[in-house]
Amino acid sequence: MGHLFADRSEAGALLAERLHGMRDPIVLALPRGGVPVAVPIVRRLGGTLDVLVTRKIGYPPTPELGVGAVCEGGEPVFDTKLMDRLGLTERDLSEVVARELRELDRRVSAYRGERRLPPLTGREVVVVDDGLATGVTARAALRAVAAAKPGRLTLAVPVAAQETVRSLRAETDEVVVLATPAGFRAVGQWYGSFGQLSDGDVLSLLEQR
Predict the structure, then answer these.
(1) Residue 176 — φ and ψ, nearest 5°?
(2) Could you tell me if residue 3 is left (phi over 0), alpha (psi between -120 and 50 degrees) or otherwise beta?
(3) What is this structure's pTM?
(4) pLDDT digits (tens, 9 = 90+) for 101-144
(5) Among positive and negative, which fits the CA dihedral 195, 199, 202, 207?
């Protein structure tokens, strides 16, 4: 299977073409991978770019497996079907949640300092990530933004698993996705370059906007 995108920046430029009708949106990128996707979108559309910090809640024996997520300003969201299959309760994950909340607070401080998110009420808000596998992190982000009562809420990603897109449509006004390929295993498989980003990379990209 070939790559769909050379890198996150190219994916963001292509995604911007699908979002071109928006006016003065607030674009909230999920760091770290969503930030380089969001930068070309804001360059094309204008509006305001900021980060919306989320953290995956991992299954303790295999932390890479996300069983939930937490977003700044929101409550933890869990994949209840997966937790049932694994025999997990929310109490079993209390230490993991506490650890991820500490890291979330650290990243919010690193990326925004004392600055707060812009007011979202009544605004057109676009949540951007580099792709959706299980979608639990995006779900936590969408619910946190929805609580602020935006005028319109859109989730925009270059690539996603088909079932995940279907499951998230109820959380937002629109899901804009460029590709939902079969054989979806991980987001990175659809990018030629999918390197890990540092906090410094995120800050540099935010300054470039």
Answers:
(1) -105, 115
(2) beta
(3) 0.94
(4) 999 999 999 999 888 899 999 999 999 999 999 899 999 999 99
(5) negative
CA–CA distance, 135 with 167 (Å, rounded to integer): 8
Q: What are the structural domains, with CATH classification, of the chain? A: 8-208 (3.40.50.2020)
Rounded to the nearest 10 degrees, how much is the dihedral formed by the CA atoms of 161, 75, 57, 97?
A: 180
pLDDT, tens only, 158-190: 999 999 999 999 999 999 999 999 989 899 999
Q: Which two tokens stand for residue 78?
A: 């869990």
Inter-residue contact 19 to 176 (CB < 8 Å): yes
CA atoms of 35 and 52, how far apart (whole Å): 10
In angstroms, how far is the first alpha carbon of the chain from the final one? Answer: 33
Residue 139's φ and ψ, nearest 5 degrees, are -60, -45
AA letter at 118: P
Q: Considering just the CA atoms, what is the radius of gyration of the chain in Å?
A: 16
Is residue 1 over pLDDT 70? Answer: no
Tokens coding 150: 């935006």
Could you tell me if 60 and 96 are in contact, meaning their C-beta atoms sit under 8 angstroms apart? yes
